[in-house]
UniProtKB/TrEMBL annotation:
<keyword id="KW-0479">Metal-binding</keyword>
<feature type="binding site">
    <location>
        <position position="135"/>
    </location>
    <ligand>
        <name>a divalent metal cation</name>
    </ligand>
</feature>
<dbReference type="GO" id="GO:0046872">
    <property type="term" value="F:metal ion binding"/>
</dbReference>
<dbReference type="InterPro" id="IPR034660">
    <property type="entry name" value="DinB/YfiT-like"/>
</dbReference>
<feature type="binding site">
    <location>
        <position position="139"/>
    </location>
    <ligand>
        <name>a divalent metal cation</name>
    </ligand>
</feature>
<dbReference type="InterPro" id="IPR007837">
    <property type="entry name" value="DinB"/>
</dbReference>
<feature type="binding site">
    <location>
        <position position="47"/>
    </location>
    <ligand>
        <name>a divalent metal cation</name>
    </ligand>
</feature>
<protein>
    <recommendedName>
        <fullName>Damage-inducible protein DinB</fullName>
    </recommendedName>
</protein>
<comment type="similarity">
    <text>Belongs to the DinB family.</text>
</comment>
<dbReference type="Pfam" id="PF05163">
    <property type="entry name" value="DinB"/>
</dbReference>
Length: 169
């Protein structure tokens, strides 16, 4: 399997595991405020979604200023969303990533990202997808920390557990 496809599938799997686990916990865990890097699990998930949303649009060639202009309404929608609604939004966005990846004849094709603050980045689609996956992994760790801080166990979502899960399919 192509490495980029594999990483995207891992990202979806790990997000699914987080949502599945959150549904087994008391409902108030989703929005309960804590002293952590993020104030709540919902805040982490909203941030993750926002970044995934922005990067998909950027990878597709949309202008960052145009993307940022859509974030206010998106943020309002995400903050109002229930856990189930946010899970649905993640699944929809994942399908859009899958569609983008499968539509590329060469995922290692070069692209240029122009960011208003960071400047111009010459990269390729595979590296940018890897960044999105890495970003999700980093923040799923925050979710686990918050869950632990609130007295519950996290869920095993390391890449190795994804690989094991593939063997058991």
């Amino acid at each position: 399997m192509d490495k980029t496809v594999q990483l995207q599938k891992f990202n979806v799997w790990a997000n699914d595991k987080v949502f599945e686990h959150l549904k087994t916990l008391p409902l108030e865990i989703y929005r309960k405020e804590t002293q952590s890097v993020f104030p709540s699990v919902s805040a982490v998930l909203i941030h993750m979604y926002q970044v995934d949303y922005v990067w998909l649009k950027a990878i597709k060639g949309e202008d960052f200023n145009d993307i940022v202009a859509t974030l206010g309404q998106l943020t309002d929608d995400l903050q109002a969303a229930s856990l189930d609604e946010l899970e649905f939004k993640f699944k929809e966005l994942s399908r859009k990533y899958d569609s983008f990846i499968s539509g590329q004849t060469d995922i290692t094709s070069q692209t240029t990202i122009r960011h208003p603050h960071f400047g111009t980045l010459e990269s390729n689609y595979a590296e940018l997808i890897q960044h999105v996956v890495n970003h999700g992994t980093y923040h799923r760790g925050h979710i686990s920390a918050i869950i632990n801080q609130l007295g519950h166990k996290g869920v095993s979502i390391d890449y190795i557990f994804y690989l094991y899960s593939l063997q058991h399919q």
